[in-house]
Amino acid sequence: MKPGKTGLPRIIHASHYSWLGLKAAWRHEAAFRQELVMAVVLIPLSFVLGQSAAQIGLMVMSVLLVLMMELINSAVEAVVDRFGGEQHQLSGRAKDIGSAAVAIAILNLVIVWAVILIMNFV
Q: Which CATH class is domain 30-121?
């Protein structure tokens, strides 16, 4: 087992690194900034358009999933870029797969929101 902080000090320490990660994503990733602005609009809107706790939860989770996938994609891209600028098939594949994860999360958001809005307003 790796020695280190445990309990509440570990949670506080980990939270600090998470905050640094969010700040780095905001500073260096235009897609994350755009998706975060989208989240600031859509999350409150879900409380207006959703007609049950389940609908609101699904709508909010679909938005948060996009942010999570973008953070993972950005992390993969940073690691790939760190290990050299030369073209390599595996580097390209890793970046493409990360991008596909974001695209699927966005598709999920569109489907969840469309189904709920159609159920509620059509």
A: mainly alpha
Q: Which of 29, 35, 70, 77 is catalytic?
A: 70
Closest-CA residue to 35 (of 80, 76, 74): 74
Query: Looking at the chain, how many residues does it have?
Result: 122
For 99, residues 6+ apart whose C-beta sits below 8 A from its C-beta are: 73
Residue with tokens 């000090």: 9
Q: What is the pLDDT of residue 86?
A: 79
**Is 29 marked active-site?**
no
- Residues with Cβ within 8 Å of 37's Cβ and at least 6 positions away in sequence, in order, are none
- Residues of the chain with pLDDT below 70 are 1-2
CA distance 80 to 49: 40
